[in-house]
Amino acid sequence: MFTGIVEELGEVTAVENLGDASRFRLRGPVVTEGARHGDSIAVNGVCLTVVEHEDGEFTADVMAETLDRSSLGVLAVGSRVNLERPMAVGDRLGGHIVQGHVDGTGEVVERKPSENWEIVKISLPADLTRYVVEKGSITVDGISLTVVEAGPDFFTVSLIPTTLDLTTLGLKQPGDPVNLEVDVIAKYVERLLGSRGEQPAGLPGSQGATP
Fold it and tell me: Sorting pLDDT into bands at 50, 70 and 90, what band is 201?
């Protein structure tokens, strides 16, 4: 379990093609401190398992399914990545509940800089729109963010200087892919109501939820 608060802006130092998978070596001295074989580290919002680690770097195997369904498939040597270790029991939940399970990918559509912040517009897959609401939470490349505007096929987020300086969203340009994870609570609510034959208000085909 993660919180979407990026601990470190890391870097891909090697990529090995394993046929039906890839092995990434990533530099991250903060997240590898005290790491052990089998530990989890979120890389751009994808929960990966540490295979080896030494001298501030770690390796992780990524299967074809993950490469195909996330933006990790476009990573190359030199790519910068957001890194976060799992939340420890008793820690403060600084962002929101993040599983590290990517629901889909979007693309940066446009950036609108301002004096003290920047608005970033990101495309949203049709099957995820029902989970995204204004002022709700969404994870973008492993970063816990608040939705400013929720459109039919996009959403916007407002980024403060710290986020721009310390995460990949300060580097992403229009057309660049990003990993998206919607709020897991919304998915559980939908599933529970569906099992009762109810449809949450606002979902496709709904006529309003039954009390």
Answer: low
The arithmetic mean of pLDDT across residues 27-54, rounded, is: 95
Alpha-helical regions (H) of the chain? 64-69, 161-166, 184-195
The rounded distance, in Å, linking the Cα atoms of 130 and 41 is 28
The more confidently predicted of residues 19 and 171 is 171
Q: Parallel, antiparallel, or unpaired: how do β-strands 40-43 and 80-84 relate?
A: antiparallel
Closest CA to 34 of 65, 7, 71: 7
Q: Which residues of 170-188 are buried (b: 16+ CB within 10 A; e: fewer)?
A: eebeeebbbbbbbbbebee
Query: What is this structure's pTM?
Result: 0.87
- Angular region, 60: left φ>0, alpha ψ -120 to 50, beta rest: beta
**Ramachandran quadrant class, 194 (left: phi over 0; alpha: psi -120 to 50; beta: rest):** alpha
Residue type, position 79, single letter: S
Cα–Cα distance, 156 to 38 (Å, whole number)? 36
Partners of residue 80 on adjacent β-strands: 11
For the sheet containing 8-17, what is the strand order? 46-49, 40-43, 80-84, 8-17, 21-27, 57-63, 52-54
Q: Is the pLDDT confidence value at 204 over 80? A: no
pLDDT, average across residues 140-169: 95
CA dihedral 140, 145, 150, 154 (to 10 degrees): -20
